[in-house]
C-alpha cells in the first residue's frame, strides 16, 4: 500500500517539473527578444542642399548590410528613417541626380538625428547659340490671326512622301480626295469645303483652272518647291475670288548664286522608279536654278475573289503612269529692285484600271496624256523703307488628250482633246506704318478653252 502512494507522488512531481521547465524556457525566449529589440535604435536623417539649404526630395539612400542592401528614399522634406543595431557601425550611400554622391558612416548607442548636406554637381552641357532675326514691319503686319501652317524645306525632306498632295495630308483641316493610285487625280478639300472653294497659289499668283476652279495636285512635283504655306480661313481680298475656305501657296525653288549639283534615284513597290536632277549657280550674270524629275510606275496587284464557289486569283493593273516635271528659275537683283522668271513644265501619261466583275476581269485600254506649261515673270521695287510695289505676269497653256477605244460612242471610241490657255496679271502696292497698313491690288485674268467635245448650247458633242 505504501509503494503505490510513493509512485503517485513521483508521477505528480514529474509533471510539475516539466511544466516549470517549459514555462522557464518561454520566459527566457521572451526576455531575449526584448533584449534584442532593445538593441535596435532609430536614426533620423534630413538631407539639404549645401548651397541653398533647401530640402532634397527623393534622394536615394542605400544601406549596406552584411548579407543584403536596402534602399529607401527621402520624403518631400528630405527626411528618412533607418533602424540599426546599437553600437554597430553601419555604412550607407546617398545619391541624387545633380549632386555629388556621399558615403556616410554611423554608429550610435541611442536614437539620433543627422543633418546631411549634398554638394551640387553642375551639369556640363555643350554651348547652345540662339539667333533671332527681326522681321520687317511689312512682313509682320501681313500676318493675321487666321490659322497658318508652313512646311519648310527641312520639314519637306523629313516627310516620307514625294508629292504635294502627300505633304498636305499632314496639315490639319485638309482632306485630299484621291481618285486612283499613284498617278490618279488628286484634289483638295479645306475645312470640309469643295475643291473649287479653296485657292491654289504658286508664288502668290493664282494657279487654279479658270473654268472649274479645281487643281490636280498630282501634276505638282514636290521637289520643285522649297516651302508650302497653308492658310485656313476665307480672305478673298487677300488671296483672290473663291477663297472661301482658305488658300495654299506653293513657293518654287528660288534662283541661287551658289553653284551646286545633285542627283537622286529611287526604286519602290509596283515598279515605281524616280530620278531627280538639280543644278543651281550663276549663268550670264543671273542667279539660276534648274531641276528635272522623272517618275514612272508599271505595277500589278494580285487579288482573289469567289466566282460562284470557285476561288480565283487574278492580276489587276495597280499603277500605270509616267510623269516628267521641269523647273527653270532665273533672277537678277539690284539695290532696291528685283526681277525674275520661273518656268514650270509637266508632261504626264496615265492609264485607267479596268473594272472587276463577277467571274471576269476587264482590261482597260484608256489612256490620258497631259501637258502643262507656265511661265511667270515677277518684278519688285522697294520704293521706300516701308513701301513695296510688286507686279507679276503669268501665261499658262494646258493640253489634255483622253482616248478609250473600247467605249464605242463613236466608231473609233472616245478620242477627246482640250486646250486651255490662261493669262493672269496682278499688281500690288503696299505702305506700312507703325499702326496701320494700306494695300491696294489689281488683278486681271483671261482664259480660253478649246476642244473637240465642247458642245454649243443647241448642239450635241457627237
The shape, in one word, is elongated
The strands making up the biggest β-sheet line up spatially as 15-16-17-18-19-22-23-24-25
For the report, how would you describe the main beta sheet? Answer: 9 strands, antiparallel
Oligomer: single chain
Helix content: 10-25%
Name the CATH homologous superfamily of the largest domain: TonB-dependent receptor, beta-barrel domain
Itemize the secondary structure elements and their pairings.
Layout: H1 2-39, E1 40-49, E2 60-64, E3 69-73, E4 79-85, E5 90-95, E6 102-106, E7 112-118, H2 137-142, E8 148-151, H3 153-158, H4 164-168, E9 174-179, E10 185-190, E11 199-202, E12 205-206, E13 225-232, H5 236-239, E14 246-252, E15 260-268, E16 272-283, E17 286-307, E18 310-333, E19 337-351, E20 356-357, E21 360-361, E22 367-384, E23 387-404, E24 414-432, E25 437-451
Parallel strand pairs: 1-7, 11-14
Antiparallel strand pairs: 1-4, 2-3, 2-5, 5-6, 8-13, 9-10, 11-12, 13-14, 15-16, 16-17, 17-18, 18-19, 19-22, 20-21, 22-23, 23-24, 24-25
Characterization of this structure:
This protein has 462 residues and is mainly β. The protein has 3 domains: 40-118, Immunoglobulins (Immunoglobulin-like, Sandwich); 137-249, Ferric Hydroxamate Uptake Protein, Chain A, domain 1 (Beta Complex), CATH 2.170.130; 254-451, Maltoporin, Chain A (Beta Barrel). Helices cover 13% and strands 52% of the residues. The longest helix is centred in the N-terminal third of the chain and has 38 residues, at 2-39. The chain starts with a helix and ends in an 11-residue tail after the last strand.
